[in-house]
Write a structure and sequence with these properties.
There is one protein chain. The chain is of the alpha/beta class. It is built from 16 helices and 18 strands. It has two domains: about 100 residues, Urease, subunit C, domain 1; about 280 residues, TIM Barrel (Alpha-Beta Barrel). An eight-stranded parallel β-sheet has the order 8-9-10-11-12-13-14-15, with helices on both faces. It has a six-stranded mixed β-sheet with strand order 3-2-7-16-17-18, covered by helices on one side. The protein has a four-stranded mixed β-sheet with strand order 5-4-1-6, with no helix packed on it. The protein is globular and about 65 Å long. It starts with a strand and ends with a helix. It is an enzyme of class 3 (hydrolase). One of its GO terms (molecular function) is hydrolase activity, acting on carbon-nitrogen (but not peptide) bonds.
Length: about 400
């Protein structure tokens, strides 16, 4: 279906436009589409859809309470509705492949990945896979290597929560939570952790093996929780193109100085700081040390973070929106989306910012198809109501 979206204020590239936005064959076009439906966006912003490069909130649909599990297909369908309702048009589900039993086990990953790729054609959001491989999950290397060849191509991220647990770092205080998630007693979990730690000399070789497979397959490769510029340099040499949740400002600054993306959590901005004492995302953004925001564990946050940073200023919103759109597309290796410019996928959202602190997603469009609408969307009148556009522009 072809469209012209009229009477709104659209973010086209880096600038706001009052002109109609034309959509032909699921893509934005700079010429009139043939026999379009006319969509009235009076009083609304038209923004590129949110690209969520790292999110694991779907785990709560699978296991809403420790030990309480639901069917993965049911969880994915429910998550899909949450995504488009929050303006996310492309998502990468961050499935953790760990040495733990339970929710983040290799067996659970097998089930999740099989369900995701079977359901994917029927989901409204363009739903993809982010393989969060725990670097001590040595027995999973062969299967993770196979999953790298899936289409669309998964992202691979290196995660090491084992070292922090053993060495009493920032993760150590989560041992009880991690044991509960895995279905083990604290004592049994600690015994398993000791056995895993005993194989630590094999970890560097496994990292190098998987990094080589990702490079050969053209997979986007990320490194998670890097603790120093030196560690960033080591993962850069392996092909990790972005720095995901660096543990300190020095590491983030080193990545940005090298022209790399730094990915932080949007909930950090919305809440006014990190829930676990990590670096402050707002401060990092203002200093130029963060280029991408992601949902992490809370799907509403990317939208609300961008609007919180802008604080009602449309010029500022145009600067901050790329954190969840254009820049995220670049980091994810998706050059076909992330902006409302000629030839890009028509992934977009209509937003009511009457309350600047609580912006409302009125409608979500994915590849030119409306997949979510909070209210009836009328056909646009012949003449644009200039007053509505002027009010948006302040």
């Amino acid at each position: 279906m072809n469209w012209v979206i009229e009477n709104g204020l659209a973010l086209v590239g880096n600038d706001w436009s009052e002109h109609g936005l034309w959509i032909d064959g699921g893509h934005v076009t700079d010429r009139r589409a043939e026999r379009p439906r006319r969509l009235d966006a009076a009083g609304l912003l038209v923004l590129p859809g949110i690209i969520d490069i790292h999110g694991d909130a779907f785990e709560r649909q699978i296991m809403p309470r420790p030990g309480v599990r639901f069917d993965v297909g049911l969880a994915l369908r429910d998550t899909d509705r949450q995504l488009v309702a929050n303006g996310i048009t492309t998502t990468f589900h961050g499935v953790t492949i760990s040495w733990e039993p339970g929710l983040r086990s290799l067996e659970a990953a097998r089930s999740f990945i099989a369900s995701l790729y079977a359901l994917r054609p029927r989901l409204s959001c363009d739903t993809r896979l982010h393989l969060r491989w725990e670097t001590f999950a040595l027995d999973a290397v062969a299967e993770v290597t196979e999953w790298l060849s899936l289409q669309p191509s998964p992202i691979l991220a290196f995660n090491d929560h084992t070292t922090g647990s053993v060495l009493k770092g920032t993760i150590a205080r989560k041992i009880g939570q991690m044991a509960e998630r895995s279905g083990l007693s604290r004592e049994d979990y600690m015994a398993l952790l000791d056995a895993v730690w005993a194989r630590r000399d094999d970890v560097p070789g496994a990292i190098a093996e998987l990094a080589a497979a990702a490079r050969a397959g053209g997979n986007v490769l990320l490194a998670h929780d890097e603790s120093s510029p030196e560690e960033r340099a080591r993962f850069r040499a392996l092909g990790a193109r972005s720095c995901e949740f660096p543990l300190n400002v020095e590491t983030a600054a080193a990545a940005r100085a090298a022209g790399e993306d730094v990915i932080l959590g949007a909930p950090n901005v919305v809440r006014g700081g990190s829930h676990n004492g990590a670096m402050d995302a707002r401060t990092a953004i203002e200093a130029g040390n963060c280029s991408v925001l992601t949902s992490d564990y809370h799907y509403p946050s990317p939208l609300h973070a961008a609007f919180a940073l802008a604080d009602g200023d449309l010029a500022a919103l145009a600067r901050y929106w790329p954190l969840v759109s254009t820049n995220a597309a670049r980091a994810a290796g998706l050059p076909d989306r992330g902006s409302l410019t000629n030839g890009k996928r028509a992934d977009l959202i209509l937003v009511d910012m009457a309350d600047k602190h609580h912006p409302e997603i009125v409608a979500t469009m994915v590849a030119g198809r409306i997949v979510h609408a909070r209210r009836a969307l009328g056909e646009s009148p012949v003449a644009a109501p200039a007053r509505a556009v002027a009010e948006l522009a302040g």
